[in-house]
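Complex record, two chains
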Amino acid sequence: MNFKNKILIIEDDFIVRTSLVMLLETYDYDISESDSGESALEYLTENKMHLIITDMRLPGISGENFILTANEIDKNFKFIIYTGSHEYTLSQALTDIGITEQNIIHKPIQDINHFKKTIDNLLAS
Amino acid sequence: MLIIFAAMFPVKLFAIQNMPEPKNVLLINSYHPGYKWSDSIITGIQNEFELNNSIILNIEYLDSRNQSDDKYRNLIKELIKHKMHKMKFDLIIALDEEALNFIAENEKTIFRELPVVFCSINASNFNQIKNKKNITGVYENAAIDENLKLIRLLHPKSKHVKIITDISEAGSATINEINTAINASKLNFSYEIIDYIPKEVLLRKIKQVEPDTVLLYTFFTPDSTGQTFKYNESLELLTSFNDVPVYGTWDYNIGLGIIGGYLVSGVNQGKTIAKMSLNILNGTSPNEIPVIQNCEKKYIFDYNQLVKFQVDFKALPEGSEVIGRPETFYSQNKKLVLNVVIYIAILLLIIFILAVNMSARISAEKSLIKTKNFLHDVIESMPSMLITIDGNFTITSCNKKVSDFSGLNQGLIKDGNLFRVFPDFSILEPVIKIVINENRDIFNRSIDILNKGSVHSTLVSVYHLSDSTSNEVVLRIDDVTEKVQRQQEMSKLRNLLADITNSMSSMIAAVDENMNIIQWNSAAEKQSGRTAEECIGLKLFDVYPPIMKYEKFILQSINTKVDQEFIKVPVFIKNETKYIDILIFPLTGMNSIGAVIRIDDVTERAKIEEVLIQSEKMMSVGGLAAGMAHEINNPLAGIMQGAQMLQLSIDPAIPKNQIIAEECNLSLTVLQEYFQKRNIFRMIETIVTSVQRAADIVTNMLSFSRKASSSMELIDLAELFDRTIELAKNDYDLKKKYDFKKIDIHKNYAQPLQLIKCNSSEIQQVFFNILKNGAQAMMDRHNASNIERKHFFNINIIQKQYMLTIEIEDNGPGMPEEVRRRVFEPFFTTKSGTKGIGLGLSVSYFIITENHKGTMNVESVPEFGSKFIINLPLNGDEDEF
């Protein structure tokens, strides 16, 4: 079996989540999905992930808190913030753990290639 | 004189000739002078004869009571015979029976055929004259029956009646009458007739009478022993020894102890026979004069007896005569009393008149004093100073006010020289001199008088008293200082009020109930272009027509005394729509009917409010749009990912596709060719483009609430605008349809212009949007009307203290009000089809208001153009201005 990068997608919107899963599965990624930060964190305690794509506006724990908590679990986790809020700006806490504008992808994905490139760049780093 | 004598003489002669020859009447009295009965008859005869001068009465007395011997009789006979022989008698009167008998006896010898009139003759002796001629007279009878009835009437309780009489000639005749009366009586009396008994028996009988007995006395002259009594003696016997009432039958007994009765009256009988005699003397035959059967009688009573026996006076028969009433002083001295009374009455009348006069005088005096006091009080309490002076300016009188004013005692003032007493009044000298010298009055001359160092405004009147003959003049001085001060204060107050109303920016008009203007302040003058002088008295709506339709509300307020207000009322003034507030305040004063109308031009405020409302609305719309946009991004992401998935899933470059195609035994090349032919790629492309467009909209919408970005820099707006104009000129879209270069751009930038902190690209976007909109509107209009028209933009950048104002004005078609109001709303567009999505001005609005804390609004007049006005604060977003 080829090595596959493990990507966890956290998105509460079913359609957005499943279509994104399907889209990324087209590429050679091992995709897991979760509909909330809490279940994702639970999942992370048992499974190792390379990249986590998360919505920011989530039921329960917010995307930002999830990132910070997940970062505590494993500093090697890479994150992509996938948000519909175009006015979204990074908080100091996220900047401190190394998250930059490069880590932000706005909904809807305008350019799938740019999206894949971002994923691959993060996985490669 | 002679003539008068001659005239009188025949009259006297005639009178003598006509005197009748005197007649001689011989009266033969049976009794003697002093006999009461016969005397009373004679009195009656004399009384009657005295009325007739021509009768000479001769009386001869037979004195039958005292002289009954023949000798005396013969002497009398001779006497009368002698007399008859000497004198010629025309008539003989026989008084009582003795006389009649005497005449009868001597008829042939002495009296011959002379007519005879008799009286006091009892009817029972009728025989003596029965067959005689030339004789007539009156029969006398005692009224026994009537007296019995009278006794029953006056003494209802009496039981016994004792009738006393005698057996004289008269008595025996009376007894017949008594018996007849008793026999006919139905009066329930027990009767006893006492007659002809010895005096002692009579006395005894009388002493023994029962208490309820009444005596009826006729006469009792001789008793059975032959003893005779005088008429008064017998009665005395009766009345002194008993205590019962004694009734009588002859009036001469009254006063002798009888109570009274139905009495034969001697005087009346005398009068009756005198009248008969006169008749005969006047030629009537005695035979033609019937004998009077019943002599006249009368109810006569003794007052003392009536009182003694307690007889009810009221029970006395009608016509009763009561004698012996106690005589009063009045009755005794009637004349004196009358005189005194009249005298006193006259005196009283005089006193009364004097008293009335005096009381009138007193009351007149009182009222005079009252009037005087009243006048004094009036003069003293008058608020005016009153001084009277004579021609030498000497004060003759003055009122209290003068001493109050001057502080001098009233007594000191009097008789002094006016100007010495009041040096301050010397200012009045010319006025007073005019009055005195020219003899004309002066009224209410305004003169300021100095008094105790202060100036008093006074009204001075100097006049002559209307009824004064002296040269006195009255000085009336009214101190009106306070009044003048008050007036000054009033006018000051009035001016202040006018100043207050005039200093108000509101138009203030007061009207009466007929809508006539009574107050018109300077704001009103300015608004209407008419001065207060012109307007007062005119109808409000003639002067200021715009509020014509509020007349009924003004009237309503006047009637109901309730304020009313009408806020932001649009009115059309000088071809402009203005907004005014109309406040109607009814006058609530006691005497004023009307209303004050305050009109405020709130056009500017209305505009500001509109902007505020707009911005608030925009904020909420912006917030809504931003929130919505965020939610829309998720489904858009779903669509986009799906479309991208489709594209990706047939990409042969992706290994996974190859593997799965192989598994499915499918040639990706063939599939791609199929998709190509079926235009599926283009369809997917359309989906992706649409999503991107939606995403763009969402991105724009999200900017509505986006906070100012950090990319603020100091910018020269003039330069920025110029660059934007260049951009517009080169804009492909614009160039394509309308040559922007054909539009004149009039630039009017303030110099120097302060740099302003802003996001240049955003502001440029705003300017560009406005220019583009304006150009498109002008272009559309141009295309529609085909009228060549010079279009322009006026660009004004105005430097203000805390901000820059950018005005972008075009002469395009303008916008109707309903468009103008909504022009900043998202998705509001008048453009058709693909020209725009209606976010350009919304985004501009939010850039200015949200991101730059400025304001943006638009004014427009349809057919004339629109004007966008942007205010940007100089200090950027640091503070709100």
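Note: The interface with chain B takes residues 13, 15-16, 19-20, 22-23, 25-28, 57, 84-87, 106-110, 112 of chain A (CB under 8 Å).
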